[in-house]
Amino acid sequence: MGSWLSGPRSAAEDMGVEFGYRGKRLGLPEDGPGSIAPFGRRFGALVVDWVVCMVIAYGLFAHGDRQAVGNWTLGIFFVLSLLTVGTVGSTPGKRIFRLRVLGENGTRLGFARVVLRSVLLCLAVPALIWDRDSRGLHDKLSRAVEVRS
Fold first, then answer.
1. What is the pLDDT of residues 85-139, one digit of tens each?
2. Confidence band, pLDDT 50/70/90 cuts, at residue 7
3. How far apart are the first and last CA of the chain?
């Protein structure tokens, strides 16, 4: 009963399975620069990016139409993600929260992988499915990792 309540990870750890820290399987450090970005920072960066995109959508395209603001915001978010992650490795929100997106091998993502990651991020569902390294499905499928800078 206890293993059911505490979850599968706790039950496996009780049986002697060693999970290690987040990012260990990827060869990343446990703390500091280059380690897996914590959820709070990633969420904060997403909020900043979304607000910036909403302001741009409202000011330039929507003219007060709430439905249009939502649609334009998503489109602007996609373009923002494509351009900034594809060139400098981080969006404005990620830069504020000192995060960057890299390939699993530590290099910059190529254009096709940035497009795949951005499309999956805009679909939202892949970003809500995580692995034990706290990487979303959008990062896993594009072979990317979001780290502290």
1. 999 999 999 999 999 999 988 899 999 999 999 999 999 888 888 888 888 899 9
2. low
3. 42
> Helix, strand, or coil here: 82?
helix
On the 0-12 / 13-18 / 19+ scale of CB atoms within 10 A, 61 is middle
**Secondary structure (3-state) at 31:** coil
Domain boundaries, the chain: 22-148
For residue 26, the 8-state DSSP code is: G
Separation between Cα atoms, residue 19 and residue 3, nearest integer Å: 17
How confident is the model over 27-85, as pLDDT tens digits?
888 888 988 999 999 999 999 999 999 999 988 886 767 788 888 999 999 999 999 99
User: Of 134, 111, 109, 149, whose CA–CA distance to 26 is shortest?
Assistant: 134
- Strand duo 144-148 + 99-103: pairing: antiparallel
Token code pair at residue 130: 């995580």
Report how far apart, in Å, the C-alpha atoms of 45 and of each of 48, 61, 67, 117, 132 are.
Answer: 5, 23, 24, 16, 21
